[in-house]
Amino acid sequence: MGVEIYIGQISGTVTEDEVRKLFSVAGTVSSVHLVTEPGTGAFRGCGYVRMSTDDEAEQAISLLNGAMLGDRLIVVKKAPPKNSQKPVSSGGGRNGQGGRTGRGVTAKKR
Question: Is residue 74 part of a domain?
Fold first, then answer.
């Protein structure tokens, strides 16, 4: 299956083949995916590379973070797991009210 690596700050002129060639210095590249906008197909400036092993992924991160690709210095780091969404916060405190026990409305005394 391989280990996925995130690449950021990619120039819009870079191709998947160029990414594959650069990352192949660290080992076997299983796949390359450059991220595009769903509606327009516009390139978002980031992508993912899947390396064959953990060691190859670590080597790619070590060698290529801050490397020049096209006309930019890229950011290379471990990709977060696909199902690692942050939990939805209820506001903390009791009853999901940010520490309040009611709706935060107080009656005025006359």
Answer: yes
